[in-house]
């Protein structure tokens, strides 16, 4: 510990001069820039990076670590985009393709009605065989069976598709979806905001400029959203940092992002199956980088589905303050080879947090504590 002196956040002065400059900027309250982000990713002093991120995390949230009692509903995996990194999507008629009927959706909801689920996370593929009414009916069915739960539905990619098939334009489509019961949107679909990466991995999906436009419109309509970054495939460190800066810029403008979720790429069963999965070192550094760079987004999630439960616990000391939730019936990550559990109970979530040295707070979709007496 002789490398550290107690004058920087977390009580440390990193041995790496570039990282020491980053620590100094954090200590005096200056926003990190692109050069700083690259310095964090280049540093081999993982413990120092983690302690800096942990200091920022604790200044915001103390020892609180959040989770939500949620259920995932993947209504279809038929998708015309067929991104190279995706193991979930299928063509219509292909083996393994599915689209849930209203009866099947109702069955999945009814069988868990006794559970105190507060959030429904609803995402699927861009299915050209579904009309706009399907989506309105889907939300309506959820609200009828779960009137007290938040419907967090449809990535910006799906919203863009719905705006095209509804004939109502982007703002009109969002308004109709809100009237049906949409209250929040997940953050997927941006992947890495790089034209180079898009051209190679997801050329049929909308570009990042449109993703930002959809999110800007959602925020303008009063819809809170999350934001994500898919990392660990072909992107460069600079492209990771640039992605975070684009999110930060939009957040400065709208304030509409509730949480940021780094998503570790799962290569199994994808067109990139020969690539190695991310390492724990890379995962922890990316989470820490997000906490240090995204000074205007309140929450950073350690998505245990992609990371695994054990590493997600460690991530709580590297800048993350949220483990997401119980995630009943998640399919997208597991179809790509994620080896985590298919879902966790409330008790399991609390134990993961407590055994990592933090205080569990069950929240709703908007980070309001569910139980009286838990800190906000």
Describe the structure.
The protein is an alpha/beta fold and 376 residues long. It folds into two domains: 9-60, no CATH class; 64-363, Aldolase class I (TIM Barrel). Helices cover 42% and strands 13% of the residues. It has a seven-stranded parallel beta sheet with strand order 2-3-4-5-6-7-8. Strands 9-1-10 form a three-stranded parallel beta sheet, covered by helices on one side. The longest helix has 18 residues, at 237-254. Residues 1-6 and 330-340 have low confidence and may be disordered.
- State the helix count: 15
In whole angstroms, the N-to-C terminal distance is 35 Å
Instruction: Spell the H/E element sequence.
Output: HHHEEHEHEHHEHHEHEHEHHEHHE
Average pLDDT reading: 91
- Total E-strand runs: 10
Helix content: 40-55%
CATH class of the largest domain: Alpha Beta
Please give the radius of gyration in angstroms.
20 Å
Strand order of the largest sheet: 2-3-4-5-6-7-8
Number of domains: 2
Taken as a percent bin, the fraction of beta residues is 5-15%
Low-confidence stretches: 1-6, 330-340
- Shape category: globular
Going by CATH, the architecture of the largest domain would be: Alpha-Beta Barrel
CATH superfamily of the largest domain: Aldolase class I
Helix and strand content put the structural class at: alpha/beta
Largest sheet: 7 strands, parallel
Question: What is the third-level CATH name, the topology of the largest domain?
Answer: TIM Barrel
């Amino acid at each position: 510990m002789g490398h550290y002196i107690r004058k920087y956040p977390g009580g440390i002065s990193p041995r790496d001069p570039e990282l020491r400059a980053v620590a100094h900027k954090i200590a005096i309250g200056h926003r990190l820039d692109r050069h700083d982000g690259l310095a964090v990713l280049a540093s081999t002093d993982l413990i120092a990076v983690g302690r800096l991120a942990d200091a920022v995390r604790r200044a915001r949230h103390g020892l609180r670590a959040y989770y939500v009692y949620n259920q995932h509903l993947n209504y279809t995996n038929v998708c015309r985009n067929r991104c190279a990194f995706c193991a979930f999507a299928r063509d219509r008629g292909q083996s393994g393709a599915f689209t849930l009927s209203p009866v099947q959706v109702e069955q999945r909801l009814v069988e868990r009605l006794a559970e105190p689920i507060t959030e429904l996370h609803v995402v699927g593929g861009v299915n050209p065989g579904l009309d706009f009414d399907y989506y309105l009916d889907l939300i309506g069915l959820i609200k009828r069976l779960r009137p007290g739960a938040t419907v967090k539905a449809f990535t910006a990619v799906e919203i863009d598709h719905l705006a095209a098939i509804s004939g109502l334009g982007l703002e009109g489509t969002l308004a109709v979806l809100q009237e049906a019961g949409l209250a929040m949107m997940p953050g997927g679909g941006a992947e890495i905001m790089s034209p180079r990466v898009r051209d190679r991995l997801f050329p049929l999906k909308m570009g990042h400029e449109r993703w930002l436009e959809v999110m800007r419109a959602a925020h303008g309509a009063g819809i809170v959203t999350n934001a994500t970054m898919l990392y660990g495939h072909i992107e460069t460190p600079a492209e990771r940092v640039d992605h975070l800066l684009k999110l930060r810029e939009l957040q400065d403008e709208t304030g509409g992002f509730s949480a940021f979720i780094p998503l570790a790429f799962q290569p199994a069963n994808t067109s990139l199956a020969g690539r190695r999965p991310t390492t724990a070192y890379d995962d922890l550094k990316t989470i820490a980088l997000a906490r240090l760079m995204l000074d205007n987004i309140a929450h950073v999630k350690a998505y245990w589905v992609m990371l695994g439960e054990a590493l997600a616990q460690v991530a709580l000391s590297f800048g993350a303050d949220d483990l997401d939730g119980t995630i009943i019936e998640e399919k997208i990550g597991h179809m790509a080879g994620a080896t985590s559990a298919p879902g966790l109970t409330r008790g399991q979530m609390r134990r993961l947090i407590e055994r990592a040295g933090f205080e569990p707070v069950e929240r709703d979709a908007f980070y309001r504590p569910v139980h009286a007496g838990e800190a906000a």
